[in-house]
Design a protein that fits this description.
The structure is a single chain. By secondary structure, the protein is α+β, with helices and mostly antiparallel strands. It has two domains: about 80 residues, 2-Layer Sandwich (Dna Ligase, domain 1); about 90 residues, OB fold (Dihydrolipoamide Acetyltransferase, E2P). About 20% of the residues lie in helices and about 45% in strands. The protein is built from two helices and 14 strands, in the order βαβββββββββββββα. Strands 1, 2, 3, 4 and 5 form a five-stranded antiparallel beta sheet that branches. Strands 6-7-8-13-12 form a five-stranded mixed beta barrel. The chain is elongated and about 85 Å long. The two termini are about 50 Å apart. The relative contact order is 0.15.
């Protein structure tokens, strides 16, 4: 889930940046420190917005820089277990597919794709089901449910596990087929009951 979170930090402004606008320098410093990092508390930090910097800073003896308190909003992506997300297949491997779900890639293991027997062709970038002939390929749009989340700290990669072995999950074309099948089944049952 994407969300805006307000954070507070102290920003060091080096003497070489005193002639530049305080807000601009503080934003650049905070972007380097926070953007593209992961926190177990707030998730993946995507973007910093809405920065407010105290104009009066503090000087520490032995350091010519000033330190200013800053409050700012961060756009984060915090994956939650059982959440349904949509993404795109970006890589096919022998053991599954990687799904781009916002700023992170999630692993869709072959055991979590379908009940059917699957074959992977890594060179062609496809996974194909034997009996249904359903195909998952690089570029496929897909809807999945998050089943596992492990977030590190800093720039370490977090891990997200997903499944599409539930009704109305999987590649968008699979979902369309399932919806049509459900409507057809419902219509035929309705026709039999009225006869």
């Amino acid at each position: 889930m994407f969300q805006l979170t307000e954070l507070e930090s102290v920003v060091r402004i080096a003497p070489s940046n005193f002639s530049k606008p305080l807000k601009k320098v503080a934003l650049e410093t905070l972007k380097v420190k926070y953007e593209s990092t992961i926190s177990p508390e707030i998730g993946y930090v995507v973007l910093i917005t809405d920065i407010k910097v105290d104009k009066v800073g503090k000087v520490i003896p032995g350091d010519g820089a000033t330190y200013h308190r800053a409050r700012f909003n961060v756009l984060t992506f915090f994956p939650k277990i059982q959440e349904v997300v949509e993404g795109e297949v970006v890589e096919i491997t022998d053991f599954g597919a990687f799904i781009r779900t916002g700023p992170a890639d999630a692993l869709l293991h072959v055991s979590q794709i379908t009940d059917d027997y699957l074959t992977s062709d890594v060179r062609q970038g496809i996974i194909q089901a034997s009996s249904t002939s359903r195909v998952l390929k690089i570029g496929s749009k897909i809807r999945v449910r998050i089943t596992a989340v492990s977030l590190g700290r800093g720039a370490a990669l977090g891990k997200i596990g997903v499944t599409c072995r539930q009704p109305f999950l999987g590649a968008f074309e699979w979902i369309e087929e399932d919806v049509k099948s459900a409507h057809t089944s419902k219509a035929s049952k309705k026709g039999k009951s009225s006869a």
